Amino acid sequence: MSKAIGGLVVAVTLSVGLAVGIVAGGMISADGTPEPVAIASTMPSPAPTLDRTPTPTSSASPSPSAAASASPTASPSPTPEPTPGLVPAPLTGRLVTPGVARRHVIAVMIDDQVGARPQSGLSSASVVWQAPAEGGIPRYLALFQEGNPKAVGPVRSSRYYFIAWAAEWRSVYVHVGGSPQAIALLRSPKGRGAVVYDADGYRYEGRYLWRLPTRAAPHNVYTDAGNLRTMGKKVGARAVEYKPAWRFGPDKLLSLRPKGGSIVVPYLANTITYKYDRKTNTYLRSVTGESKQVDASSKRRVAPKNVVVMVVSFAPLNDGSKKHRLEAQLTGKGVAWIATNGKTIKGEWRKKTMTAPTRFYDKTGKQVTLTVGQTFVQVIPTGFKPTIKQGKVPTLAPVGADGAPGPLLE
After folding, report:
1. Which terminal residue of the chain, N or C, has fewer Cβ atoms less than 10 Å from its own Cβ?
2. Where are any strands of DSSP class E within 137-281?
3. Are 187 and 198 in contact, with CB atoms under 8 Å apart?
């Protein structure tokens, strides 16, 4: 769950009289996300009140016994403690404490079969990847840094190409088993921090992951934020000075945002629909069978600030299992559609190596700027194409005789 943050500014202006202005946003929460609080809960001890009574001076009386009155000595004002500086979170651009920005990224494989819905933790993730697995059924990879979800799951098995996206942050990679190709990498030195930190649920179930009795296997393995971070330390992950891979900018003004617009992303066994919401500047997400996708843990609508659809070449893995697993193009470049601030453009994705970041560019070759907040990346196979419907920015009616702007014109 995201909580907002803010800072505290105290300004004192002294002229003829005294004016004190205070602006307060809120306390910095443990997870570095937005939640306003009462001003009184964040205000430091007040500075000593300045005495506006005129200071006594030596008497002008001719009486020889009249002594000059001494001015009282003012106590020095205590130096206020500075508010800790905030920095952009590397995965979202949100302002967080430096400690949160250094949290090691944790990547969790999450199920998307019908028996797994509704999932937990998706609304709290910084970035969510979704790509097809066997049978055309998509699977999620949720990356967590700022959020503190109370539940995450159902946790499912690994696939090699999902590891490549988790490797962009050398993430703690949480899964329950996996394909032979994926397990071979995870059990090698590459799975001990060179590419990712392997956190297999088969090893840690009962300590950091558990099974819900209310769901049938294999859709019942869950964890939470606290256990994920403890497990991350257990496998050797530590705080990291991350460099942002993407560029972020602020929300556009409401008057510049379009009304309407949608993105439909097809998979063999599922269809994802995003409807742009002008007021919140988010993309309201729906999946086949769920007209409104809601996070089971936070009870919040899944609604990212950015949506990227990228086309990747998939082929049968042919690992001898007869489970129709897939392998995918991990590096190179390909077609991408990038949606942010209500507008969708066609561009390109690029990824140089397995551990290099995937970046997105417009048709001129310039890296795109995303809106601060969560991003969903929809990976679709070659031959599939999203259906894009652009919204339209409403126009204002001419200014009236009273100088007030007219209503929006559709």
Report:
1. C
2. 138-144, 172-175, 197-200, 210-211, 221-222, 247-249, 262-267, 270-277
3. yes
Say which amino acid occupies 230. T
Structure tokens at 126: 């910084």
Amino acid at 66: A
Cα(334)–Cα(328) distance, rounded to whole angstroms? 12
According to CATH, the topology of domain 98-234 is YerB-like fold (3.50.90)
**How much is the pLDDT for 190?**
97
pLDDT of residue 399: 58
- The answer to whether residue 21 scores a pLDDT higher than 50 is no
Of the CA atoms within 13 Å of residue 205, those in its CB half-sphere come to 15
Q: In the predicted model, what is the mean pLDDT of the chain? A: 82
Q: Which residues pair with 378 in a beta bridge?
A: 130, 309
Give the confidence band of 188 by pLDDT, cuts at 50, 70, 90. Answer: very high
Rounded Cα gap, residues 189 and 14, in angstroms: 64
Residues 6+ apart with CB under 8 A from 391: 258, 259, 260, 261, 276, 278, 342, 343
| Contact between 222 and 211 (Cβ < 8 Å) | yes
Q: What is the DSSP letter of 263?
A: E
Report the alpha-carbon distance of residue 342 to residue 247 in Å, rounded: 17
Q: What Cα–Cα distance (Å) separates residue 300 from each residue in 1, 107, 118, 152, 295?
A: 8, 21, 11, 14, 5
Give the pTM. Answer: 0.77
CATH 3.50.90.10 domain extents, the chain: 98-234, 247-389
Question: What are phi and psi for residue 340, nearest 5 degrees?
Answer: -160, 145
